[in-house]
Each structure stands twice: as structure tokens, then as C-alpha cells.
Amino acid sequence: MTHAAKPLNVLFLCTHNSARSILAEALLNDMGQGRFKAYSAGSSPRENQQPNPLGLRVLQRAGVPVGGLRSKSWDEFAGPDAPQMDLVITVCDNAKGEICPIWPGHPATAHWGYADPSEGDGPEEAKLEAFRQTMHLMRRRLEMLVSLPADKLQKAMLQGTARDLSAH
């Protein structure tokens, strides 16, 4: 795949679209070098849901741009005017078991589970560390995705390739 090729659209899903899916969206857009366009959404974001400020802080400290990140429902990506996804990845165990919309174009799907870094009542420093660790784990897996040769990113191969990466 050359830089002139159409980027691969990747949608990261979580329940509230405030932590893990936001981290994955920001990381892949930063790392994707124009080969990928990442989005994120939630199956049931709370009313007035916003990205977790600790997640945004960890991304900023890592030099990852956070402009334009917002929490949104996956319904935004199921309509006829939505960008067509090539790959849909659930990043939390709750979203994995939910009935997903029928995505236009029938994209490849995978589940890459991560613990929720925003859970618990620990001190802010402990939560920041949880976000940092989650970001690091995601970055390692996303580095493998972005370094795949073009033939592994073809639609017919993408399903197996994305699921293989879930073991890393």
C-alpha cells in the first residue's frame, strides 16, 4: 500500500467511548502515517460523555495529538453518510459481547481486550499509571498493525490478521 492509496478506516469500539477506544483512535491516527484513518465510538456513551481527562493527559505527555477527540455513539458510523470501515475492533470486554450494528461494507472485526484504566477509586497517580500502561500495550499492538505489509491489509486477509494480533 502506498501513501497514495486510500487509507484503511479502523473503528475502535468500547462501551462509553471515553478511555480505551479514545486512546486507540488517537494512537493509530498518530502512528498510521496516512495508511490508516482511525475513529472511535461507544455502544452506549453516557449523556454529555467526554473523553477521560486522564487519558487525554497521558496522550499529550506522550506527544500524541488530542485535538478533535470526542465521545460519540457507534450509531454515527452505521448510517449511509458515515465513512465505510475496513476494520472494527472492540477494545473492552463489555462491547465484545454486545450486538453490533450491521456495518456497511461488512468490515473485518477483531477483539483486543484491555482492562479499563478508569475503573477503581485509587489516587490520581495510580489511575494515570493505569492509563499509561494501557496506552503502552495498545501502542505495541498498533505498531505491529501499521508495520504489516500491504498484502496482509487486503480485505480478504484483514480478518485473520487483526484477530492474530489479539494474541499479542
Q: Kindly give the count of domains.
A: 1
How are helices and strands ordered from N to C?
EHEHEHEHH
Helical content class: 25-40%
> Would you report the number of β strands?
4
Domain Phosphotyrosine protein phosphatase I: 8-148
GO molecular function: arsenate reductase (thioredoxin) activity
Keywords: Arsenical resistance, Oxidoreductase
Organism: Comamonas guangdongensis
Mind explaining what this structure looks like?
This protein has 168 residues and is of the alpha/beta class. Helices cover 35% and strands 13% of the residues. The protein contains 5 helices and 4 strands; from the N terminus they run βαβαβαβαα. It has helices spanning 20-31, 53-61, 93-96, 124-146, 155-165, and strands at residues 8-14, 36-42, 87-90, 108-111. A 4-stranded parallel β-sheet has the order 2-1-3-4. Strand 1, helix 1 (20-31) and strand 2 (36-42) form a beta-alpha-beta unit. It holds the Pfam family LMWPc. One of its GO terms (molecular function) is arsenate reductase (thioredoxin) activity. Its EC number is 1.20.4.4.
Task: Characterize this entry briefly.
InterPro entries: Ptyr_pPase, Ptyr_pPase_sf. This protein has 168 residues and is an alpha/beta fold.
Write the layout of secondary structure elements.
Layout: E1 8-14, H1 20-31, E2 36-42, H2 53-61, E3 87-90, H3 93-96, E4 108-111, H4 124-146, H5 155-165
Parallel strand pairs: 1-2, 1-3, 3-4
